[in-house]
From TrEMBL:
Function: Catalyzes a mechanistically unusual reaction, the ATP-dependent insertion of CO2 between the N7 and N8 nitrogen atoms of 7,8-diaminopelargonic acid (DAPA, also called 7,8-diammoniononanoate) to form a ureido ring.
Binding site for ATP: 13-18, 42, 98-101
Pathway(s): Cofactor biosynthesis; biotin biosynthesis; biotin from 7,8-diaminononanoate: step 1/2
Gene3D superfamilies with a match to the protein in the record: P-loop containing nucleotide triphosphate hydrolases (3.40.50.300)
Protein name: ATP-dependent dethiobiotin synthetase BioD
Catalytic activity line of the entry: (7R,8S)-7,8-diammoniononanoate + CO2 + ATP = (4R,5S)-dethiobiotin + ADP + phosphate + 3 H(+); (7R,8S)-8-amino-7-(carboxyamino)nonanoate + ATP = (4R,5S)-dethiobiotin + ADP + phosphate + H(+)
PANTHER family associated with the record: ATP-DEPENDENT DETHIOBIOTIN SYNTHETASE BIOD 2, DETHIOBIOTIN SYNTHETASE
Statement: the UniProt record of this protein carries the keyword Magnesium: yes
Amino acid sequence: MAHRFFVTAIGTDSGKTVFSAILCEALKADYWKPIQAGLPGDTDTIRTLVSNKKSHFHEEGIKLTTPASPHAAGKKEEVEVSLQRIELPETENHLVIEGAGGVLVPLNDDENVIDIAIKFDAEVIVVSNLYLGSINHTLLTIEWLLKNQVPVRGIVFVGDPNPESQEIILKRSGLEELLHIYNEEKITKKEIKKYADRIREKI
């Protein structure tokens, strides 16, 4: 049975794209970015990092060039950004869907990025990069998801190990740590394969 995973994070530039590449490699899954705001596009980045021949890289649902929240970029470029305009790509394969920013980043005045995951019945994976303040940001994100009955598969940590932060996040959230992505000098296909091997048995 094919699964849909929605990759979200506690903020911007958190490691969502790198993890999405890892997950695509581990599952030989397709990749889709429903809303791209800013260039270069994440789809192009993912394509250069995934080695397997099965993954397909679907065209973005809405493509914006302004590096801003979808609602702001849409207004600036006079492009309608809404759930109604976003259609799930056709595939029988596993599908990795990468969000834009965090859970409550607005698409417009009424809808948020996480509504994409809800609309398409995708299981959420939360990427938490370990910085000062990440405990609060991570737990608030997870609390919102769980209170709104959004299924969460687990947490991915990014950055230098911080055992105290990781332990309290896992304890209070009750979620599983799926992977820890360390600070690498460079992210290449080799690193993606390495982490794909680590997460394959957990996902």
